[in-house]
């Protein structure tokens, strides 16, 4: 397989065929993200991509995940051609998944997204990080909450499963509470099928890390991060069922909840842990990872 640079995928795509279609991220500006920092964005040669599909199709897969950062940025016709090729070579494929940023989603019409859904696009992973405008500006996310909401609504209208990620700690200690509350409300308004909270990891090749070294960015402590998690869940008033998790390797405490049903129970659990200040319940620092 012709993999270039870092290949990352959501945990739920662990058993998927991984095909690299683009290299890097077309935005590549987020202050906390070091994944593609030294990688110039480009679209891979389609013949190479097809050779990789041929090679991977020697094995049976039910899911495909297309990397890197934002495959949805490709023109719809190219994506349709690619999806058709995947399904021809691997007829057992039931779902195609991609990461997508807000700009890439908004460039597509709902009609185009519906065409992609018909062709196999089953899930879009949308990293929103925060629902707070000041935080989003500060981290150079490239999309403010109203645009993220518009993008989420388009994905849902097209009937594609929406999975969103948010970042505990990304508001720093100064914006910790507004970040948590606004993110919870934002997730409620978007009501994704899946939502997942990760925790900021300070990576030396990022702007956020420089700010941290200079004392301009201060992370909340472990229990401050759990308070963010609690506030997010507490403020998340979903209009349809959402599976909310914090079981990513970067987190101190894994939770799994079906919202709205489990909200009270999760908030009470987090309250107890925060009040106990018992660090032995939390994941040790050396086990945290991206
Ligand atoms: S977080 Fe996502 S959008 Fe931001 S630079 Fe990293 S890959 Fe690109």
The largest pleated sheet is described as: 8 strands, mixed
Task: Outline the low-pLDDT stretches.
Answer: none
| SS-based class | alpha/beta
How large is the share of residues in beta strands? Answer: 15-25%
CATH class: Alpha Beta
Name the assembly state: single chain
Question: Would you identify the CATH H-level superfamily?
Answer: Aldolase class I
Order of helices and strands: EEEHEHEHHEHHEHEHHEEH
Total number of helical segments?
10
CATH fold group: TIM Barrel
- For the terminal residues, how far apart are their CA atoms? 23 Å
Question: What is the topology, as strand order, of the major beta sheet?
Answer: 1-4-5-6-7-8-9-10
- Heterogens: iron/sulfur cluster
Helicity level: 25-40%
The 3D shape can be described as globular
Tally of individual domains: 1
Q: On the 0-100 scale, what is the average pLDDT? A: 95
Q: Give the second-level CATH assignment, the architecture.
A: Alpha-Beta Barrel
Radius of gyration: 19 Å
Number of strands: 10
């Amino acid at each position: 397989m012709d993999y270039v640079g870092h290949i990352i995928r959501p945990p739920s795509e662990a058993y998927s065929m991984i095909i690299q279609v683009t290299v890097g991220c077309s935005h590549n500006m987020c202050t906390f993200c070091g994944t593609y920092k030294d990688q110039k964005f480009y679209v891979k040669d389609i013949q190479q991509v097809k050779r990789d599909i041929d090679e991977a199709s020697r094995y049976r897969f039910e899911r495909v995940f297309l990397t890197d950062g934002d495959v949805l940025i490709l023109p719809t016709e190219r994506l349709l051609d690619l999806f058709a090729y995947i399904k021809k070579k691997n007829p057992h494929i039931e779902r195609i998944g991609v990461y997508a940023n807000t700009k890439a989603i908004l460039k597509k019409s709902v009609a185009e997204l519906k065409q992609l859904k018909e062709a196999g696009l089953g899930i879009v992973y949308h990293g929103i990080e925060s629902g707070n405008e000041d935080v989003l500006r500060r981290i150079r996310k490239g999309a403010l909450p109203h645009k993220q909401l518009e993008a989420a609504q388009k994905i849902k209208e097209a009937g594609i499963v929406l999975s969103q990620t948010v970042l505990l700690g990304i508001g720093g200690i100064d914006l910790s509470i507004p970040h948590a509350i606004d993110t919870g409300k934002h997730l409620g308004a978007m009501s994704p099928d899946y939502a997942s909270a990760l925790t900021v990891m300070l990576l030396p090749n990022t702007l956020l890390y420089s700010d941290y070294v200079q004392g301009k960015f201060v992370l909340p402590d472990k229990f401050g991060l759990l308070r963010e998690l609690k506030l997010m869940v507490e403020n998340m008033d979903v209009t349809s069922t959402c599976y909310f998790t914090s079981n990513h390797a970067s987190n101190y405490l894994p939770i799994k909840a079906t919202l709205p049903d489990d909200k009270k129970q999760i908030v009470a659990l987090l309250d107890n842990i925060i009040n106990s200040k018992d660090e032995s319940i939390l994941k040790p620092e050396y086990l945290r990872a991206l």
